[in-house]
Design brief:
By secondary structure, the chain is α/β, with parallel strands linked by helices. The protein has helices spanning about 25-35, 50-55, 60-70, 90-105, 135-145, 165-170, 215-235, 260-275, 290-305, 320-330; strands at about 5, 40-45, 75-80, 80-85, 110-115, 150-155, 175-180, 205-210, 235-240, 280-285. It has one domain: Arginase, Chain A. The strands form 2 sheets. Strands 2-1-5-10-9-6-7-8 form an 8-stranded parallel β-sheet, with helices on both faces. The chain has a two-stranded antiparallel sheet with strand order 3-4. Helix 1 links the parallel strand 1 (about 5) and strand 2. It is globular.
């Protein structure tokens, strides 16, 4: 299959200093891919910056102004984890633009992975947090809705709950948000009972998993929770918040997912998109802080997309069985699971 990455060297200009989400994070990943036999099979596309109007589809004007002002001030901590430097505002626009650009590549028959930074899924409509300035995937989803789509599924496998994305769509049914994440862990949200509100009730699916969950556990989440619900929802596009910090080598998480586990999840996402929405599938980079582990995980996803197959996951869901059962029991009020 035709597989693409969306990337720009300018992502390194969001200078965070000695920070886990450092300036080299995407550059080192692309450097790794360049040295692999996979690189000649990838289509490389560059993003255009999102506009301020794009950002305002998700974020409050005051939040946009805060990020812009902090960057223009020469550098500022927006919270204990989230730093902006002089170029951070422009690069955050480029990151959101990368997610948007990924969805535009469907017209070329490409399935893309947007290798962007800063990440986005913690940025709420009115607050930057957790290394995130603007919610890239939520902005891309809003653009798709604005263009006429009515149902979008966002699957988030980052080790941290995507609280910003959840907040953006918690009260509406136009986006089905599904998150599997370590619990308890930052940011402290994403419990089973967070299912949406008002018109959005039943369209948020959270599976908080215990530390140490691995390939079989995530395979069970997809097989028994995510896939059945997504198929019933029948989205017109599938977006993935692809955080590689569930890898067993990542320093900011305590999960045990291997490259085979990432490949399996990517295959599940591809299968859903192929069956339900004409392969309208896009991955957007979120976390992942061990440089080597992140590169290998992204490579596993891209190889799966390029080959349209993945190695089988043979381990069982030993740690996550109770969490999967509770998630199914909670979601049974809304879906046939």
């Amino acid at each position: 299959m035709n597989t693409a990455i969306v990337w720009d060297e300018a992502y390194a200009e969001h200078d965070t200093g000695a920070h886990p989400e450092g300036a080299d994070r995407v550059a080192s990943l692309v450097g790794y891919l360049r040295q692999s036999d996979l690189w000649p099979r990838l289509t490389v596309r560059h993003p255009m910056p999102a506009t301020e109007d794009d950002i305002l589809l998700v974020h409050a004007r005051a939040h946009l102004a805060t990020v812009k002002r902090a960057a223009q001030g020469g550098g500022h901590w927006l919270d204990p984890d989230t730093f902006v430097s002089p170029r951070s505002y422009e690069i955050a626009l480029l990151a959101a633009g990368g997610a948007i650009r990924a969805t535009e590549l469907w017209e070329e028959g490409l399935v893309p992975f947007a290798l962007v930074r800063p990440p986005g899924h913690h940025a709420t409509p009115d607050r930057a947090m957790g290394f995130c300035l603007f919610d890239n995937i939520a902005i891309a989803a809003r653009r798709l809705l604005q263009a006429g789509l009515e149902r979008i599924a966002i699957l988030d496998w980052d080790v941290h709950h995507g609280n910003g994305t959840q907040a953006a769509f918690y009260g509406e049914s136009s986006v089905l948000f599904c998150s599997a994440h370590q619990w308890p862990h930052y940011p402290g949200s994403g419990f089973f009972t967070e299912c949406g509100e008002g018109e959005g009730e039943g369209f948020t699916v959270n599976v908080p998993l215990p530390a140490g969950s691995g390939d079989g556990d995530y395979a069970a989440v997809f097989a028994e929770v995510f896939s059945p619900i997504v198929r019933q929802y029948a989205p017109q596009a599938v977006l993935v918040s692809a955080g590689q910090d569930i890898h067993g080598d990542d320093p900011l998480g305590s999960m045990e997912v291997s490259e085979a586990g990432f490949a399996h999840m990517a295959a599940c996402c591809f299968g859903l998109a192929q069956d339900l929405c004409a392969r309208r599938l896009a991955f957007v980079l979120e976390g992942g802080y061990d440089r080597g582990a992140t590169a290998r995980a992204v490579e596993a996803v891209l190889r799966t997309l390029a080959d349209e197959r993945a190695p089988a996951v043979t381990t069982r869901a030993e740690r996550a069985a109770a969490a999967v059962a509770r998630a199914r029991a909670t979601q049974a009020a809304y879906w046939d699971v």
